[in-house]
Write a structure and sequence with these properties.
Number of helices: 18
Order of helices and strands: HHHHHHHHHHHHHHHHHH
Structural class: mainly alpha
Shape: elongated
Length: about 300
C-alpha cells in the first residue's frame, strides 16, 4: 500500500469511527477520574476504544483485514461487557464478510443492550442490509427509510449507494411506494458516479415508467443510455448494491429497461426472463408483460 493510499484509508477509517463513535469513547478525551472505580476503569476504557477504532479501520481496508474484526469486537466486549458498540462492529464485519445471518444476530444483540445502538447511520444501514440479505424486506425497507435522512455525514458514494438501495427495495414493494422510490433514486442519480451513476439513471427511468410518467422516463434514459450498458449493470458495485437491498432479481428489469433504447429484440428477451423468474411473482409482473408485448415485432401485411 502506497503512503498516499494508507493515508486515505486512515482518514476514511477515522471519519467512519467518528460518525459511529460510542458514547463511552466520545468523552475519553480530557477524561478526569472522579472516584476510585473510574480511575481503575480508565485503562480498560482506553483499550476498549482503541480496539473499536482499530476494528473500524480494518473494515475500510481489504477483506483479509476485515476477517480480523469479529475477534477484535469480541475482545472489546470482554473488556467492558454489556456495551452495544462491540456487537455493532461485529455485525458490520460479518456483513462485509458475506455472513448476513450472523450479522443480523449481532445487530439484534446490540439493540437488546441499547435500544439506541442502531441510531447511527452506519449501524442503521448495516441493519437494513442484513435484514434485506436475509429476506426480511419489510424491516429492511423501514430501516432504509429511517437511515436516509441521517446520511449527511457519510461520503457522497455512501449516500448515493444508500439512496439507490433504498429506492430499489421500496420500488420492489409495489405501487404503494413508487413515489418515494422515485425521490430516492433522483437523489442517487445526483450523487452517484461511474457505474452507480448509470445504474441510478436506469433505475430512475424504470421507476418513472412504473409510476406512469413514461415521457420523463424516456427523456432521462435517452439522455444517458446511448450504448449497451449491460457491462455497466454487471459491475460488482451495482450487483452488490442490488444484493444489499435484497432485490437482485430487479437487475433483470434494469437490463430490460436499458435495452429498450438500443436493442428491442434483446429487451423483449430480457423482459421475458424477468417474468419467468422472480419478477413474475412480484407486484410489477404485469408491467413487465406489457413491455414484453410492446417489444414484439409487429406483424406485416399479408
Amino acid at each position: 500500500m502506497t503512503p498516499a493510499l494508507a493515508f486515505l484509508v486512515a482518514v476514511l477509517a477515522q471519519s467512519a469511527f467518528g460518525a459511529a463513535r460510542p458514547a463511552e469513547c466520545g468523552v475519553l478525551e480530557g477524561f478526569k477520574a472522579t472516584n476510585v472505580w473510574e480511575r481503575a476503569k480508565e485503562p480498560q476504557l482506553r483499550r476498549y476504544c482503541n480496539l473499536l477504532a482499530s476494528g473500524t479501520s480494518k473494515l475500510v481496508g481489504s477483506a483479509a483485514l476485515a476477517k480480523e474484526v469479529p475477534a477484535i469486537a469480541d475482545e472489546a466486549d470482554k473488556l467492558l461487557p454489556g456495551r452495544a458498540a462491540p456487537s455493532v462492529l461485529k455485525g458490520r464485519a460479518l456483513l462485509r464478510l458475506g455472513k448476513p445471518d450472523g450479522a443480523l444476530a449481532a445487530l439484534k444483540e446490540a439493540r437488546s443492550r441499547d435500544d439506541r445502538a442502531l441510531d447511527d447511520p452506519v449501524a442503521l444501514l448495516a441493519w437494513a442490509r442484513a435484514n434485506a440479505r436475509t429476506g426480511h424486506l419489510e424491516e429492511a425497507a423501514q430501516a432504509y427509510r429511517a437511515a436516509l435522512p441521517r446520511t449527511s455525514a457519510l461520503s457522497a458514494a455512501e449516500r448515493s449507494a444508500a439512496s439507490f438501495e433504498a429506492g430499489m427495495i421500496v420500488m420492489a414493494q409495489g405501487p404503494k411506494g413508487i413515489d418515494d422510490a422515485v425521490a430516492m433514486l433522483r437523489q442517487a442519480r445526483r450523487e452517484a458516479q461511474d457505474a452507480m451513476q448509470i445504474a441510478s439513471v436506469v433505475a430512475l427511468g424504470l421507476a418513472l415508467d412504473r409510476a406512469g410518467q413514461r415521457d420523463e422516463a424516456k427523456a432521462i434514459l435517452t439522455e444517458r443510455v446511448r450504448s449497451d450498458v449491460k457491462p455497466v449493470l454487471a459491475d460488482a458495485r451495482v450487483v452488490d448494491a442490488l444484493a444489499d437491498a435484497g432485490v437482485s432479481h430487479e437487475g433483470g428489469a434494469l437490463v430490460a429497461t436499458a435495452l429498450e433504447l438500443t436493442d428491442p429484440a434483446a429487451a423483449r428477451e430480457a423482459w421475458k426472463r424477468y417474468v419467468e423468474g422472480a419478477g413474475g411473482k412480484g407486484p410489477w409482473a404485469d408491467h413487465a408483460r406489457a413491455h414484453e408485448a410492446l417489444a414484439r415485432p409487429k406483424a406485416g401485411p399479408r
